[in-house]
Amino acid sequence: TAIAITEQPVSVSVPVGYSFTLRCRAEGRTSLQYQWFCQHQSDCREIPGATNQDLPIIAEQTQLYTCRVNDLYRNAVFSDWVKVEVHQCVARGLPPRLWQGEPVIVLNPTEQRVEVGKPLQLQCAAMGVPAPSYQWYRNGNLLEQYKRKKLWIANAKVSDSGTYLCCASNSHGEHWTNAVDVHVGEQSQPPSLCCTSPGVRGKIALLVGNNCYQHHPNLMAPVRDVFELSRLLEQLGFQVVSLLD
Fold first, then answer.
1. Is pLDDT at 239 greater than 90 in this prediction?
2. What span, in angstroms and rounded, lies between the C-alpha atoms of 150 and 161?
3. Could you tell me the CA-to-CA distances from 150 to 42, 56, 90, 108, 154 in Å, in that order?
């Protein structure tokens, strides 16, 4: 081909007001010209004056962007479309000047109670530069097919019950959402724990997994450890209460 894009722009997920730059690089047989375009909803338009390889942006609203590259022989190619997702919030404790683009959870999933056969939906969101990828887990086990912000099960089954959480990751690291319980087909609240009477033997295990610390990088293993220990202790006859952070 006459023109080859050597560096594609990348999608980002940022707080409103955040400043960053989209980059596009290409090679060709002649000198090259660049022109950036943006699309919001169904409106696609050329960005006036955006004729450089780099496009500085101050995040205001979620939009799609692409760059057209052409040479002196009227050959032209377009870069990948990338999404600039803008969150109307500020990352707590992460001023823009200090944020390096590592994933920051801005929406955690919530506990769900659904009937058998009804839809089950869990949702999360994270900021990151580049935009984070997502992976959902149930009871500590990876759910291979669920790799988006939204987890959607059209017809929930009893076997879909469990504790869910999602990992958001990019080239700067990874961060986990809160763990939430999903109950499918259970009409009543689970029985509350009570103290056993002196003549009754009861084995109750309380597991607390902390992975968020104020003055230390987040840990990953406690989340998985709690799930693994829960299963083991239940097999040994314990009634297990699991807490995270």
1. no
2. 17
3. 23, 30, 22, 11, 12
Locus of tokens 């290409």: 26
Query: How many CB atoms lie under 10 A from the CB of residue 214?
Result: 5
What percent of the chain is modeled with pLDDT above 70?
Answer: 79
* Domains in the chain with CATH codes: 4-87 (2.60.40.10), 104-185 (2.60.40.10), 204-244 (no CATH)
**Predicted model pTM:** 0.71
**Cβ distance 175 to 136 under 8 Å?**
no
Q: What is the mean pLDDT of the chain?
A: 86
Q: Is the dihedral of CA 95, 88, 136, 144 positive or negative?
A: negative
- pLDDT at 208 (0 to 100): 80
